[in-house]
Amino acid sequence: MSKLIVYYAHPGHKYSHVNQVMADAAGIVDNITFVDLYRDYPRFDIDVNVEQKRLWEHDVVLLQFPVFWYSTPSILKEWQDLVLEHGFAYGAGGDRLEGKKLMLAVTAAGPEEAYTHKGYQHYPIRVFLTPLEQTARLCRMRFPAPYVLYSALQAPVTGTVQPHVDGYRRLLEAIRDDRYDFDAAEKLDVVGYENLPIRAKD
Asked: Measured in Å, how far apart are the chain's first and last C-alpha atoms?
């Protein structure tokens, strides 16, 4: 069984269309750790020692957030700046995260076709997530394909909220139970509830 920690960051949690339901589902999955950064650190006074200990104790780190202005919500950047210290996460002696996995679960307001070279966002969503992918590499972590929901604002109308949340729960349980195929996921650009590389139970 893998030790999984989920970090959730959404400054407008109560107004969320999808992330709130995802967070609620993640919070009740047995034998994983769930951290709501805005709830736990409302003044951004992040406890570095606590967070580094959490990272040290878990095998898989999953960051859940909506893509805001092509980046993460601000508290997640603050968390990275403070917690991923030289000598801990990278640099001389900074090998505490080596071999662990960093995964993302993100929502995007725009449709999938917008995140193409011909779409109005001009680039695939993985391009906007490159800083996090490079962070994983610097920390010598693996970076499987992110779990993505496009058109998140329309999801309540299109009926995709529940399938996406159900897929998220399956994803978390598969990671916990060592049934998520990280090798296959690393070969994909993104994954969604319809193409999760989950191995069948023995």
From this structure: 14
Contact 132, 148 (CB under 8 A): no
Instruction: Round the average pLDDT of the chain to a whole number and report it.
Output: 97
Domain ranges of the chain: 4-185
Task: Give the orientation angle of helix 74-83 with respect to helix 48-57, to 10 degrees.
Answer: 80
Contacts of 11 (CB under 8 A, 6+ apart): 38, 73, 74, 75
Residue that is written with structure tokens 């001009």 in the block: 122
Going by C-alpha positions, the residue among 72, 61, 133 that lies closest to residue 97 is 61
Q: What is the pTM of this model?
A: 0.96
Q: Could you tell me the sign of the dihedral formed by the alpha carbons of 105, 18, 74, 14, in that order?
A: negative
Query: Which has the closest alpha carbon to 62: 153, 151, 152, 141?
Result: 141
Coil, strand, or helix at residue 155?
A: helix
SS3 call for 62: strand
Q: What is the maximum alpha-carbon separation in the chain?
A: 51
CATH number, span 4-185: 3.40.50.360
How many angstroms separate the CA atoms of 89 and 188, rounded? 26
* Mean pLDDT value of segment 67-74: 96
Q: How many Cα atoms within 13 Å fall on the side-chain side of residue 113?
A: 0
Q: Residue 145 has what DSSP assignment?
A: P
Give the whole-angstrom CA distance, residue 29 versus residue 89.
28
